[in-house]
Design a protein that fits this description.
The structure holds 2 protein chains of 2 kinds. Chain A is α+β, with helices and mostly antiparallel strands. Chain A has helices at about 10-15, 35-45, 65-70, 120-135, 155-160, 205-215, 225-235, 275-285, and strands spanning about 20-25, 25-30, 45-50, 55-60, 90-95, 100-110, 110-115, 140, 145-150, 175-180, 180-185, 195-200, 220, 290-295, 305-310, 320-325, 330-340, 350-355, 355-365. The longest helix of chain A is centred in the middle third of the chain and has 12 residues, at about 120-135. The radius of gyration of chain A is 21 Å and the shape is globular. In chain B, the strands form 2 sheets. A 6-stranded antiparallel sheet of chain B has the order 1-2-3-9-8-5. In chain B, strands 4-6-7 form a 3-stranded antiparallel sheet. The chains are: A alpha+beta, B alpha+beta. At the A-B interface, helix 2 of A face strand 4 of B.
């Protein structure tokens, strides 16, 4: 095994009895003694604490916000300039063929942009940003801060006990809050479909903060296993699975992330990698689309299952890219890519599971209603 | 009771059949079990055939037939309540009963002390 990195919460994971697995070059907790099912349900009912310190934290600085934003817009089909101070937005790095290189969150923090990218992509993302943005914008990787997510309906109550300012934040707001004596960069967001916060905290204070949050009776530590089933039920993409260098944001049903100002006819139309294909996909439609898929039996259908239009014969018309058991749904859930002529909600399809075709139905996402404080 | 290296338990019954399930150790390692696919009653199976599929929240795994023989009964209750395998793996969470073709195949397997040594 190559040398795995550890997050500032490694000792806490061990003390809590976590089962640790290699993930994106880090030793990460996949589950705690509670188990994936109960961790998932606890997060939807109360609140879960997730260590997401493996994700990349980056600060972009320049002469002023406009300078940074205009530069950042050359990498993404997203309205960066129009994002108000103190607000966060979902973004996507695209490539020359209109595929997705990574998805990310970025925030307007006045004189800088704070970016959070996926762990597995962070090296490439930082190189991409340096190449495209420097020298007018500086790209600083933040390596001395941990990232903690607090997710679930009790999150506001839990965090506002440490700083009442947390309760004043709305979905996708960002603020600097004093938590347990350290300056934390807090966003009201996450990746579970629940209300919650993501907290960037100085590494040497991370354990103190995590322990303070875990002291609350409604908070449990939650591993990557439940993080995956939560985001799947919420219909959210996992990079490298549901979206990758070959999927366009339009095929991926992420056109909502491309604001009008960057589309054909918009004031800052195009000007990002792969604009030709992506703007054409918006106008002309795509041959395949990402959809929700509900297996009709009890057997989970996982990533890689081939989809057919008929119970027998015919060519494949799609593939599952994420699938498993949804604890809140109480049954199997999946998503994947399906040819456009088969992707209407309610369409009956068949997935080949252990040599047998089993029925599933195209359904709307998310599987569980989102619960954001807007 | 006998144990296989694949973490199955085999309980010889008075009618000559053998009840098969997975051990508590295996159930714990698999995590929350959400689906169990069992063979059909009347199936003739060979030792080593993959005849049970277990899906946990994490992954799918196969269970092989520990003996040559005929499946004479399966635990249909697992279709609606696969969690029984976690709750009571050596009781209500049993998988199937097999009528062995050659009962001496039972001698290939470990006793409880041997199994405990294996899992440490």
């Amino acid at each position: 095994m190559t040398d795995l990195a550890r997050t500032p919460l490694y000792d806490l994971h061990t003390a809590l009895g976590a089962k640790l697995v290699p993930f994106a070059g880090y030793e990460m907790p996949v589950q705690y003694p509670l188990g994936i099912m109960k961790e998932h349900l606890h997060t939807r009912e109360k609140a879960g604490l997730f260590d997401v310190s493996h994700m990349g934290q980056v600060i972009l600085r320049g002469a002023d916000y406009d300078t940074i934003a205009r530069a950042f817009e050359t990498l993404m089909p997203v309205d960066v300039l129009g994002l108000k101070e103190g607000r966060q937005r979902y973004g996507l790095f695209t490539n020359g063929t209109g595929g997705i290189e990574d998805d990310l969150m970025f925030a307007n923090r006045g004189d800088h942009i704070f970016v959070v990218v996926n762990a597995a992509c962070k090296g490439a993302d930082i190189a991409r940003m340096r190449e495209a943005l420097e020298p007018s914008v500086t790209v600083e990787e933040i390596t001395d801060r941990a990232l903690i997510a607090l997710q679930g309906p009790a999150s506001e109550n839990v965090l506002s006990a440490l700083n009442p300012g947390a309760a004043d934040m709305r979905f996708m707001d960002v603020a600097t809050l004093d938590l347990c004596g350290s300056d934390c960069w807090v966003s009201r967001s996450g990746y579970t479909g629940e209300d919650g916060f993501e907290i960037s905290v100085p590494s040497d204070q991370a354990e103190t903060l995590a322990k303070a949050l875990l002291e609350h009776e409604n908070v449990e530590a939650i591993g990557l296993g439940a993080r995956d089933s939560l985001r799947l039920e919420a219909g959210l993409c996992l990079y490298g699975h549901d979206i990758d260098a070959d999927t366009s944001p339009i095929e991926a049903a992420l056109s909502w992330a491309i604001q009008k100002v960057r589309r054909s006819g918009g004031a800052r139309e195009g000007g990002f990698p792969g604009a030709d294909r992506i703007l054409a996909d918006i106008t002309d439609g795509t041959g395949r689309n990402r959809v929700g898929l509900k297996p009709q039996g009890r057997a989970p259908m996982r990533e890689g299952v081939t989809l057919y239009a008929q119970a027998d014969g015919g060519q494949p018309i799609g593939k599952i890219t994420s699938g498993g058991f949804g604890p809140t749904v109480g049954g199997p859930v999946a998503m994947g890519y399906v040819q456009t002529d088969h992707c209407e909600t309610g369409t009956r399809l068949y997935g080949e599971l252990r040599g047998k075709r089993q029925p599933l139905e195209v359904c709307a996402l998310p599987f569980t209603p989102s619960n954001f404080k807007r | 009771m006998k144990y296989t290296e694949e973490h199955e338990w085999l309980l010889p019954e008075s009618d000559g059949t053998v009840t098969v399930g997975i051990t508590e150790h295996a159930a714990t390692q698999l995590g929350d079990i959400v689906f169990v696919e069992l063979p059909e009653e009347g199936d003739t199976v060979a030792k080593g055939d993959e005849i049970v599929v277990i899906e946990s929240v994490k992954a799918a795994s196969d269970i092989v037939a520990p003996l040559d023989g005929e499946i004479v009964e399966v635990n249909d209750a697992l279709a609606d309540d696969p969690g029984k395998v976690n709750e009571d793996p050596v009781g209500d969470g049993w998988f199937f009963k097999i009528k062995p073709e050659d009962p001496s195949q039972m001698d290939d397997y470990m006793d409880e002390a041997g199994y405990k040594d294996m899992i440490g």
